[in-house]
Amino acid sequence: MGSDNRYLIRFLIGLMLLLLSCTIKEASASIHEYNDEAFIPRSNAFFFHGGSEGLYASKVHDSSSTSPDKPFQGKSFIRFEDVTFVRTKLAASKQPAMQQSTGLVEAIIFEVKDRERIGGAFLKTNAICCDPTLAQAGSCKLGEVIIQKDQDNQEWPKRIQTSFAGKDEEAKMKPETVEINSTGMYYLYFMFCNPELQGTLIKGRTVWKNPNGYLPGKMTPLMTFYGIMSLAYLALGLIWFLRFVQFWKDVIQLHYHITAVIALGMCEMAVWYFEYANFNSTGSRPMGVTLWAVTFSTVKKTLSRLLLLVVSMGFGVVKPTLGGITSKVLLLGLIYFLASEALQLVEHLGNINDLSKKTELFLVLPVAFLDSCFIVWIFSSLSKTLEKLQMRRNMAKLDLYRKFTNSLAVSVLLSIAWIGFELYFNATDPLSELWQVAWIIPAFWTLLAYSLLVVICVLWAPSRNPTRYAYSEEMGEDFDEEGIALTSSVDIATKLERKGLGEDLEEDKRE
């Protein structure tokens, strides 16, 4: 039966990776790719969202200070590469063959704080494109998007125009790089005003780069954060290893589980740092490196939850084994691993553009549900463990588990509060204007997991007196050493305690 389960697990993992490899393409830094995508009508215009990223201001503004082979080193920019507009054959056939411009498409780049400058809001109109009335008043040019220029910088918002020629079905943008000299959240829209161009498609890509590399602005601080967390896990691992070696004769099986989680945490942070550093320097995310990072992260998350669960059940402390529920614990861990791995693979290996809300919800809900299952099971197990220790009057272990319960309760309360903060943050910042602090959202969960691991390491640290937390069948798990000193009927109490122990052991086996 155990062999069949192993084959089933391998089959499920293999099937999941096969399906994901067929549907996921390699992602490329802050590169937004357009694959024959359509324009959406709004007001009297048609637009396509070309991307949005947080960009830092260029560190170098003088071209003479950059090297000839790297003219954009130290600069932020948005570069258009092979961007092509394809209109319908019907629209092209209606145009005169000799006319130089028979359709205009504009690329508009603006900072989010200047969004009101796009369209006719400043002219007290809802129109986005200039109409004959506004053109006659001299407010704008007919057939172009209405833009109110910044008085301090007449070049912004940036407008780049591309025209179809004669009966051509395609119009290709000239290769152009727009330098960014002000830190902000930048948006790119492709727009046209001519209704005859309806049905036009866009293909090509744009590359967005920050002064220090290709990492998107939201992700740049995370590379430093993962570097710091790698050192934090290394320090914890070193302290735990020295303690482990010092008292290696007294270690219990639980200590090996804790060691495995620490090791996986070190690997996870180191691989994520390497992945981000490679992403930042090369502008691409190799699937192999990202897959390793995601898998390390998922395995560590799964084992961390399983560690919390088995500790809550009293494994190695109140009972020597998990008994008949071992298979249920492993099944929950396997399902969580598969669901979490699928979510993270799609998030990190997919295109840089955001997932659709339906896809994101479909992937997030199973993980959230399984996390809830872990929380409910952990606290119900803790309740039973505390009850058993109280009945057995084992004050040392009871105090230990109360401290653990309090720490876990605080972490759950913090998690609930942080989820509320996340919802508020996302609801009040729909345009990502707070992109420079958005990195704290994922960083919090990493710090919380690390803090819980530190608490477990402190409470269950190897020592010369492992009986304060280790299961001891010889002494009798119900045996209260302090109680022996306080009673005159030692033999009677011992017999009663041993009898209770036998009943509890039978109960543990049934569980």
UniProtKB/TrEMBL annotation:
Membrane-spanning intervals of the chain: 223-242, 254-274, 329-346, 361-383, 404-425, 437-461
Subcellular location as annotated: Membrane
Cellular component annotations (GO), alphabetically ordered: Golgi apparatus; membrane
Membrane topology: Multi-pass membrane protein
Main location: membrane
UniProt cross-references to Pfam families, sorted A to Z: GOST_TM (PF06814)
Signal peptide: 1-29
Keywords recorded for this protein, A-Z: Membrane, Signal, Transmembrane, Transmembrane helix
GOST seven transmembrane domain mapped to chain residues: 221-466
InterPro entries recorded: GOST_TM, GPR107/GPR108-like
PANTHER family cross-referenced by the UniProt entry: EXPRESSED PROTEIN-RELATED, LUNG SEVEN TRANSMEMBRANE RECEPTOR
Protein name according to UniProt: GOST seven transmembrane domain-containing protein
Lineage: Eukaryota, Viridiplantae, Streptophyta, Embryophyta, Tracheophyta
